[in-house]
């Protein structure tokens, strides 16, 4: 068993509890005095209002102090204080803890302000959207104009080539390109291609030729049945446009990528002029 001298000082917690209880008792006695009670009976009197406000302020201050104490020490003093306030000012504690009454005029003003803010937000969003759409339209127009200018420059450059206006297909061996045209106006291309290897046996012949045969699923009987899809022949010795690897030289034919070979097969007809230079 530990020894505790009778004259030992109480702990800080105990001292705060005693102080809180004393404050609660004093406040209760003050609020229960006849002068305050009579003032509380007339709720419209300024004195009653001032004492009621003061009572709530004291109650709040003591509650803050009580928060630092154990409940078993703080609760009795706070209960005494609440009983005293309720005795002097019935309903005051409940009224103070209730949410403040809403002012209809203030509520209406707040609603109108919120509506104005929302309207402004929507207007700003609409303006931003319109600006974005205008910028997108401007970019699209600039891209269209640039593409048109590029197409016109390309068409002008192609018109300056040796390929005659009456040719339906043109082949530029040095430029590794070919295109389709009608009355001198380009209708497809230019697209990349590869031609025959530069030797007397494999070089693609130059000059004016005419489409004489079309075979969609063609094979080369001369070169081990090699596939020649979408073949469009324009010479009498087996030279044709057909699908093939444009990175490889041929035995004289014009290799085209798949999509281009399909277009040439669909657009070129028997008798159309092909010009090679």
Automatic annotation (TrEMBL):
The lineage of its organism: Bacteria, Bacillati, Actinomycetota, Actinomycetes, Mycobacteriales. It holds the Pfam family YkuD. Keywords: Cell shape, Cell wall biogenesis/degradation, Peptidoglycan synthesis, Signal, Transferase. The active site is at residues 242, 253. One of its GO terms (biological process) is cell wall organization. Residues 110-161 are annotated as: Disordered. Residues 115-125, 135-144 have a biased composition (Basic and acidic residues). GO terms for molecular function: peptidoglycan L,D-transpeptidase activity; transferase activity. Residues 167-277 form the L,D-TPase catalytic domain. This is L,D-TPase catalytic domain-containing protein. Gene3D superfamilies: L,D-transpeptidase catalytic domain-like. Residues 1-39 form the signal peptide. The keyword Signal applies. One of its GO terms (cellular component) is extracellular region. Pathway: Cell wall biogenesis; peptidoglycan biosynthesis.
């Amino acid at each position: 068993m530990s020894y505790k001298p009778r004259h030992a000082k109480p702990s800080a917690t105990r001292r705060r509890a005693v102080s809180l209880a004393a404050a609660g008792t004093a406040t209760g006695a003050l609020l229960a005095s006849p002068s305050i009670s009579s003032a509380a009976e007339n709720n419209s009197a300024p004195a009653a209002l001032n004492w009621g406000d003061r009572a709530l302020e004291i109650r709040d201050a003591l509650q803050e102090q009580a928060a630092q104490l154990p409940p078993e020490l703080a609760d009795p003093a706070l209960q005494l204080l609440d009983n005293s306030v309720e005795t002097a000012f019935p309903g005051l504690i409940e009224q103070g803890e209730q949410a403040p009454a809403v002012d209809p005029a203030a509520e209406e003003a707040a609603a109108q302000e919120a509506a104005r803010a929302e309207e402004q937000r929507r207007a700003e969003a609409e303006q931003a959207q319109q600006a974005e759409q205008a910028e997108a339209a401007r970019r699209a127009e600039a891209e269209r104009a640039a593409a048109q200018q590029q197409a016109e420059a390309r068409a002008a450059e192609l018109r300056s080539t040796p390929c005659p206006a009456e040719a339906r297909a043109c082949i530029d061996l040095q430029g590794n390109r070919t295109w389709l045209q009608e009355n001198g106006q380009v209708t497809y291309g230019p697209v990349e291609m590869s031609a025959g290897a530069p030797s007397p046996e494999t070089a693609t012949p130059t000059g004016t030729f005419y489409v004489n045969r079309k075979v969609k699923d063609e094979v080369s009987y001369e070169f081990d049945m090699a596939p020649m899809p979408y073949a469009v022949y324009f010479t009498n010795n087996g030279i044709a446009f057909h699908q093939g690897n444009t990175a490889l030289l041929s035995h004289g034919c014009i290799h085209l990528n798949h999509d281009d070979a399909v277009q040439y097969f669909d657009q070129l007809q028997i008798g159309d002029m092909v010009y090679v230079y």
